[in-house]
């Protein structure tokens, strides 16, 4: 007999590093979810930009069941067919020549940051080890990735952290020019900052970052853990910037919720991680790779990617209509279906009040920092679900404003 659990069970048995909502989701279909009390929710959160083709997609269920009847894991002293097919597909569809598989975005970034340092060490010497990243950036929760990330709160209490890392303001090329030098081994950036507030890169800024990296023989790393796999309307966001990185990281939507991550690299960069220099026990396991291959096949089609662009307008129009009624947002921004609405000063530091109100109305959303409401739904969310979600959000915002 299955033991009954409630939200209170979390407080009894889990490490308190999360503060989950009162509800416990138990099933999902498409862009709808149901909790343990059978209350229905429209999902504008997508598991933090993860469930890019919705919950329980029939194709993913099919390939998962088929692979489960074969084998789930093989040690990386051997390779496997799903991993090879997925790697081939990713290299054919991107700038990259080589792929390293792991289990998460944090692990993909950890691999990327190790690669850039080793690349510089092998080609230029140990003095060339400095990494430049951007304030408000987020790259993961390992000790190395929180150090490269531009949010000091995630490092507090874990010092001393890895050194040789500096930060400047995003979209400020003059600050970057002042920092970069012959000691710089890499510049790390998100094409659109996610956790930092849904801030897209200026096209000219991105172009000049590439030029500076070339000038100083530094690698350019794009963290596309959140922006990749169709989220912005192209398979990867770098395609819209007109800038090609040397290294790119992916996860989140790549597995639609099944743990998988990938680091993509050019041939010259990839050669720095020779035999024995890095690894992952579960990385590239056949179950993860067969699911990720199906995700890529579903998303990388004109129908889905063009649909992302069309849905972007529906979300912006929906937020604009609510703002015209209640005047709660000072800015609405984003790319594709990674959208942020920055709250007005009345609610500064308290964007989560809208999240909580929406939850009561049966709508799942996110925040991106304390001031920005974030939406990152399925890329194939039905238009009827979008309309219903905004009807619920209207009710939620009305209650927040009435109680202000």
From TrEMBL:
Residues binding pyridoxal 5'-phosphate: 138, 223-226, 281
Keyword vocabulary terms for this entry: Amino-acid biosynthesis, Aminotransferase, Arginine biosynthesis, Cytoplasm, Pyridoxal phosphate, Transferase
Pfam families membership: Aminotran_3
Subcellular location: Cytoplasm
Molecular function as annotated in GO: transaminase activity
The protein's annotated pathway: Amino-acid biosynthesis; L-arginine biosynthesis; N(2)-acetyl-L-ornithine from L-glutamate: step 4/4
EC class of the enzyme, as a word: transferase
Entry's cofactor comment: Binds 1 pyridoxal phosphate per subunit.
Enzyme Commission numbers on file: 2.6.1.11
Modified residue annotations for N6-(pyridoxal phosphate)lysine: 252
Substrates-to-products reaction catalysed: N(2)-acetyl-L-ornithine + 2-oxoglutarate = N-acetyl-L-glutamate 5-semialdehyde + L-glutamate
List of residues binding N(2)-acetyl-L-ornithine: 141, 280
Main location, first listed in the record: cytoplasm
Subunit composition and interactions: Homodimer.
Further comment: May also have succinyldiaminopimelate aminotransferase activity, thus carrying out the corresponding step in lysine biosynthesis.
Family membership noted in the UniProt record: Belongs to the class-III pyridoxal-phosphate-dependent aminotransferase family. ArgD subfamily.
Name recorded for this polypeptide: Acetylornithine aminotransferase
Record lineage: Bacteria, Pseudomonadati, Pseudomonadota, Gammaproteobacteria, Oceanospirillales
Gene: argD
